[in-house]
Amino acid sequence: MNTKAVVLAAGKGTRMMSETNNLPKVLRQACGKPLLHYVLKAIDFIPPENTVLVGGYMKEAVFAAFPGYPQAVQEPQLGTGHAVMCAKEHLEGFDGTVLVCYGDMPLLKKEVYEGLLQHHAETGALCTMLSGTCKEYLPYGRVLRDENGDFLRIVEDRDCTEEQKAIRELNVGIYAFDCASLLEALSSLKNNNAQKEYYLTDVPAILRDQGKRVAVYTAALNEQIIGVNTPEQLEQTERFLRQRGE
Q1: Which of 5, 54, 141, 167 could form a disulfide with 171 if both were Cys (CB 3.0 to 4.6 A apart)?
Q2: How do residues 90-111 score in pLDDT, each as one tens digit?
Q3: What pLDDT, on a 0 to 100 scale, did the predictor assign at position 81?
């Protein structure tokens, strides 16, 4: 499969006290290695020259720590959709699949990424999103499906009704896209929300509304989908990595 990856690694990590530690979030260490190390290791079936790092806060440190990867800069940081827009120069003219993932999710295993891409290829979808269940509460968007069980849209946690909050199928925020369809949909993204940001989560609904096939790859992921946003989650992540022997 002809695949490129876009790894979002621009976040500051305010709750991680990044300024105090003088490190961006993706360079915070778990078991002696940066969080971003584990993500890049999990997707190392995609060659470095096809893996774009999107940096923002302390980008020079991120790029210096992981040389050999194409670089894109997101300044200012205006949401996940905007982050992928910032990698546009590396994607234009590419006829293949784009995997979008996060530099602060070190627990997601290689076989999950591979399963997502395989499902994307098998279904012929132009967008395949990763969804999963988790035993603990995570403030992630919920995946809404229609009466046939097909993807309808994503609703963010803060916008959920009480009924929607009970949905256990969570949007992980990781996607496989047909590159041309992704770039076209990004040009339609709007920032008419309270944060005035461009959300990548809006792209699947844009494609669906255009009549394009959107698939969902679902797995029981549990701790794998924990993103590191707080010191407590960093400790939790280290615990899981030690249990795995990493």
Answers
A1: 141
A2: 999 999 999 999 999 999 999 9
A3: 95
Contacts of 14 (CB under 8 A, 6+ apart): none
Measured from the Cβ of residue 60, the count of other Cβ atoms closer than 10 Å reads 9
For 1, the token pair is: 């499969």
Q: List alpha helices for the chain, DSSP H.
A: 18-21, 35-42, 59-65, 80-85, 110-123, 162-165, 179-186, 203-209, 231-244
* 213 counts as catalytic: no
Q: Which two tokens stand for residue 161?
A: 């009704």
**Mean pLDDT along residues 65-84:** 96
Check residue 193 and give its pLDDT. 79
Q: Say which of 15, 168, 239, 242 is annotated catalytic.
A: 15
**How open is the CA angle 49-53-172, to the nearest 5 degrees?**
115
Residue 17 has pLDDT above 70, yes or no: no
* 180, 95 contact by CB (below 8 A): yes
